[in-house]
Amino acid sequence: MRLSPAHAILHSRVGRQLLATFFVLVAVPVGALSLLAYQLTEYVVQQSAAQLSGELAKAVGINLIDRLRAAESLLHVHGLPSGQGPGPVPLDQRLESVFASVDRLFPSELAPMPQGRSTLRVVGAPQPGVAPTVELIVPFAGAVVRGRFTADYLWENAQSGTHRICFSGPQLSAPFCQGVEGQAANEVRTQREIFFTPYFDAPAWTITTTLQPDVRRYLPIGVAALVGNVAAIAFLLALVSSSVVLRRLTRPLDALTSGTRAVLEGDFTRRVQIAGRRNEFTDLADSFNAMTEEVGRDLALVRVLAQMDQAIIGQRPFAEVVRLMLAHLNAQAGGAPVGVVQWPAGAPRPLVLSLAADGTLAQRETGAPRDAGLPQAGEGADPAGGEGPWHDLPVAHTGTQRVWLRLERLPAPEGRAGRELAALGQRLAVALHAEQHEQQLRERATRDSLTGLLNRFGLVEAVDQLVQAQAATPFAVVYMDLDGFKEINDAYGHDVGDCVLREVAARVRNCIGPRALAMARPGGDEFVFVLPADAQAALRADIESVMQAVRVPYSVPPRLLPLAASLGMAHYPAHGASQDELLKHADLAMYTAKGAGRNVLVEFEPALAAEQAGRLALRHDLRHALAGQQMFVVFQPRVRAQGRQVASVEALLRWRHPDKGLVSPDTFIALAEESGFIIELGLWVLRQALQQFALWRADPLVPVRHLSVNLSPVQLADPAFPAALHALLQEFGIRPGELELEITEGALIQDVDAAVTRLAALRAHGVAIALDDFGVGYSAMRYLNRLPFDTLKIDKSFVFAFGVERPALAIATAIVALAKALDKRVVAEGVETPMQADLLQGLGVNELQGYLYGKPQTAAELARLWRSVEGTERPSGGP
Ligand code: C2E
Ligand code: CA
Ligand code: CA
User: Fold this and answer.
1) Confidence band (pLDDT; 50, 70, 90) for 687?
2) In whole angstroms, how far apart are CA 318 and each of 325, 435, 694?
3) In angstroms, rounded to a whole number, what is the distance separating the alpha carbons of residues 123 and 126?
4) Does one domain contain both 395 and 491?
5) Are residues 340 and 484 in the same domain?
6) Which of 111, 408, 725, 758 is an S-S bond match for 336, by CB 3.0 to 4.6 Å?
7) Can you give the residue range of the structural domain that contains 417?
8) 54-63, 178-187, 387-396 — most confident range
9) How many angstroms is it from 636 CA to the middle of ligand 2?
10) Which ligand is nearest to the CA of 794?
11) Mean pLDDT, the chain, integer
């Protein structure tokens, strides 16, 4: 904003203060002096006016007397020759100019008659503004001559252009004045007496002269104006000179202020310039400019260092850090950097990174750098680029990389530029190290150390990148899980297991290595490979080759171990738009493959996901079922085959889902086992059942003597289970022998040794063990003699099949025979008809359980039933 000088001064606070000071210093003395001069002048004027008036009065007086005396002489002359008798005397010409009339009078005509001296008289009362009539009476012997004056003669000299002249005296009843009358209070007025007595007989008159008011005005005002003008000129001069001085003060101040403001706004390029001769202000501006430049450079350095740090911390590429640094050096006139030379170990030629005109980083091959350690400079020409001389300043040397800073000019190392370069170089070194460290970490974090394939992180990242790249060619994610690996691991140990995994990885690599987009072992015995899916035939062939290769037995001297694989496949983008979805769906497909039997490939389809989603939702709800009090326990009676009296009850868990109603235990128990929630849930069932059993046992009307509770293999594998069971038995005062734990036989053969140990421990404690669902699935007779148990429960499917499938009865017969041989008790479940009951009794089964004797019911329902039959027939239960 350009301001006019006056504005500039008023705009500046200092300007205003200085202006005020100047005003006080100049205006007040000039004003005071002017006033003084004015008053002095007026005094002098007053004095001289008074003097003038005095002189005037005197002159008028003298003139009046002179005229009177001249007139007297005229009358003398006139009276002598013809002064004989009274009567009018003819006037000659001379007399005429003096007198209006001349008379000769005799004593009788005039009283009193003057004697000897001429007498002056005023005739009549004078009118204001009209000249009084004056007469002169001159005595002669016996008569007098009386001359009455013309007004002109006597008063014509009593007039002044500058004064009002008044006559007064005893003879004049009112003063006679000529001239304008004034009203000024301090008018200049002088009085003088005219004494007639030396010449005439008359009292003295007084002459008053008064300076005319309009004349009065001129005199002092003229001087005052002069004084005023002088004062005004002095004031103006003061104003002009002070403005000049003020301008000289405020302009540099303005410049410095706006310079400071620019600095505050972060503009360090602005320099303060003050025109004119050197003074403190120019010195100040110079210091200010020097300071701004220093601070600006410091700040720019700090800024670029911070940006570089940010890039390093933000794990931006090394090139980005280089770009930031080069951009900074370019902006700082002086250093003129050529670029940064980077030479990875093993590369034939180094690369030089330099800043292109558009601010991006360009890179090209260059000749070998010539280290120019500071301060010596090794100069030369680039043999590759054919450019002028330069200097290569070593910056960093990691195990795999070397980096130089290439400069046109080398600054002195201890100078400012040298120190700046050192700081920047250090930061560059940090960036390089950080990037390499980061790379190593990534490598370590994304690789599986055993097989060298990607690990789960690496896999996720790789698939993510494929998805991000939105590759034009579709791809397939294949999940592979080894079947039977766990057995090898358990049987031969982890070393053998690791060997097998490495071998699997090698075979997979061998088959699809060159074509695979990614290969990973996300964990355990799971492998994942990502293959291009543009050609379905090629994809199938690849997968088939992998399956065949994996199936070839593994040599673990002295044996050959067989393995197979279950595979699941998901396509991008058909089966998932994200890494997460693709992997999940491939996994799901693999899971289905596992269920479908070994060595199968299952391709994902949405129905799988829907099923899975339902399971997941149910699993989620299950977590909250206990707290939501949706769980309860029912009891199903078991009767003795002989007499069909209630011997015990089996506790069975129920879940009433708030939306879905009752959910089958076959569904939710499996879910709880998958998530491990069964451990918590199983203990809860045990507690409910034991608590209820303790109540029943104390009731003489209730016939129950034993309690059966189902035990999941997951619970059996839980090391904390025996202690928890023990605590519960103690809490409710139940003897271990009163409790029987039912465990599905099929679940035990997975890890027979561990099961044997755990079951034996429970049994040693006194708890009875029943093998549930006996006869279905992997029922392996050869384990049976190793397993510690008390009771066999023939699965209900055999009972249902009586009379429907021929072998059912035969199998049941064999099972009972087997149990008897091993000295175990036998229970049959699913008894629905008396015919089934009789058949089983005939086989020698000890106890019967089924709807025939009672459905699973709540404790309250059972108690009601037992009470109603009490006293009639000893209960057989059953609805
Ligand atoms: P399970 O242990 O074999 O239980 C017997 C199943 O057969 C029960 O089904 C019972 O209601 C049913 N059942 C009994 N008599 C008859 C009959 O005459 N006819 C027919 N058609 N069915 C009969 P539920 O209660 O649905 O239990 C299914 C399975 O869920 C059980 O089989 C058991 O393996 C598991 N389960 C139930 N509660 C628990 C529990 O608290 N813990 C554990 N770990 N598993 C449980
Ligand atoms: Ca059972
Ligand atoms: Ca069963």
Assistant:
1) very high
2) 11, 6, 74
3) 8
4) no
5) no
6) 408
7) 315-364+388-442
8) 54-63
9) 10
10) 3
11) 84
